[in-house]
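Crash report, auto-generated. Payload:
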Amino acid sequence: MTAVVTVLFFGVAYGMILYLISVGLSVTMGLMGFVNLAHGVFAMLGGYAAVTLMNQLGLSLFAALPLACVAVTIIGFVLERTLYSRLYGRSELDQVLFSMGLILISMAVVRLIWGPMAQPVQLPDYLKGQSVVGGIELPTYRFVLVAFGAAVIVALWVIFERTLFGARIRAAVDNRGMAQAIGIDTSRLFAVTFGLGTGLAALGGALGADVLAIAPNYPLHYIVYFMVVVAVGGLGSIRGPFIAALSIGLADTACKYLLPEMGSVFIFAFVFALLLWRPNGITGKR
Amino acid sequence: MTDRSTAAILPMPQAGISGTRKALSMSLWVAALAIPTLAPGYTPLANQIVVMILFALSLDLLVGFTGIVTLGHAALFGTGAYTAGIMALRWTNDPLITALSGMAAAALVGLLTGSCMLRTKGLAFLVLSLAAAFMLHELANMATSVTGGDDGLQGVSFSPLLGVFEFDFRGHTAFYYSLACLFAAFLLVRRVVNSPFGWSLRGIRENDARMRAIGCPIYTRRLAAYVMSSALAGLAGALQAQTTQFVALNSLSLELSGDVLIMLILGGSGRLYGAFVGVPLFMFAQDLLAKEDPANWYLGQGLILMVMTLFVPGGVLGLVERLRRSLGRGGR
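Recovered output after restart:
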């Protein structure tokens, strides 16, 4: 019983982080059809920004998170306008190569500034340690993580499903030409959405700094997970990646708990089978 | 349809290879033969370059000629390397038998994974290629009793080539052996890409819907290219194991898949000689930049990729071709 609850809890926390990081990638890839392997870069930058703000400047966690988010959103927005937008409509190979280049440059820059070691997260005292729930000890910080993640996800759904901005994004995902024809400025929409997506990734990277360690190889090390969440969840959707991220978070945690030697092989075998069955993901068209 | 910018960088169909170009490529091969005599200290490095050229050439068949972008090509290289290494430790250490087995094993893995993966395209294919390579890497990492896990296979030694030429410490045998394999592979790939089959691959790269409409069996053609490329990548891996007497877990890694893609793109994909230009340039730059801080090398690679995709599509060879054209001497 304890094992089941522990796996569920850690799996959900892990899934939340994966979702926060990947959802922006799903939406921007659905919008622009851009194969962006470098989305993890923004999560890493968020992590570094938050850790630096907390450890060096002594800001509290809840002050550092939004600041890191805003900083990375601006970086994402600028990169979209200056570089990404030049490659819309280019071949898949060019987009893959470009985003690989961005990954490598970010790894170098981060290494030069912060060094090769992983950055430790200094949590405030009240978030350290364990909380006992129903006789099971669980780390307090993960509760905050899950609660915070859930709040952001609810906000995201409201924006996506209930606001004009969300409707515009959905329209442009469905049919870009038609969206343009009825007067939606898709170019601006792309930039804003890209910025927001990178901001969410930054939030995920910062919140999840003790789940996915903040180190220079971050964008390369976790790329498989982010890409899998998006591919399995389906492009241009915010519901699909949620199911995919939670499933992968739970399955990965369970596999590592039950069969530590086999690592993640089972998950990837399952993903392999799933993508052969539904190449466009669980919410995509067959 | 391709837009004008891509059309401009595609190699033009060649009715016949011009005299100067033929002489140039001949002298390149002859010059390579002289490396152990002229620069004996650099023979092991030259061997490394030859092996990587073979690996990049195999990728060119996929990326350059068929338009299949894979992020897991190291899976096939590693399969060849581990097959040769494990065979040498357990059954036979004859270089030719183990090399052929490495090729066969990689071709089989290519056939199995390719026949699944090639049913998809775009994002799904990319993720599948990543996932397949990742699984193989994890399996090799876990099966420590067979693969040595994280330590790799060490002290893999091979019997003399053809029973005569020993793999000496100067690396001369190793170099000539790798070079001979590369030459054979090059002739094969050149024959293939200039055959009607090769032109149908280019057709698929340019527009698969049209190729299907004119009755080309796209899936079979792509799979054939994939298996052929896998076999050559496996050969490169086996050569790596034989000439360095070591198989590292790194030979299955995402980093290697990325490196070989960068090498190919740097030289220019879809041109046969792209690998021959890109690999030495890449190795040279790596030697120059990685010495002080690996970060410099990441930065260098990243900048190469950015500049290539934004300003120099077609790599170094594409650049040379455009310069020649703009100088008015014509592309032939």
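Post-recovery validation: The longest helix of chain B spans residues 218-244.
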